Amino acid sequence: MAQWITEVGERARTRLSTARRVPPFTVTGPVEVRPASTVEDGIPRGIKVAGAWAWRIVLFILAIYLLLRLIAALRLMVIPVVVAILLAALLEPVAGLLRKRGLNRSLAAAIVLVGGLVVVFGGLGAIVTTFIAQFDTLTGRVGEGLDEIQSWLASGPLHISEKQLSDTMSSLEKQVTANRSMLTTGALSTATTLGEVVTGFFLVLFTLFFFLRDGGQIWSFLCRLLPRQAQLPVARAGHYSWYTLVSYVRATVLVAFVDALGIGIGLAVLRVPLALPLAALVFLGAFIPVIGATLSGAVAVLVALVTNGPVSALLVLAVVIAVQQLEGHVLQPLIMGRAVALHPLSVILAITTGVVAAGIVGGLVAVPLLAVGNTAIRYLAEHPDGEPTDNQAAPGTEPTDDDERREEDAEERAADPERERVERASSGTGPGSVDGEIKDQ
Question: Model-level pTM greater than 0.85?
Answer without folding.
Answer: no
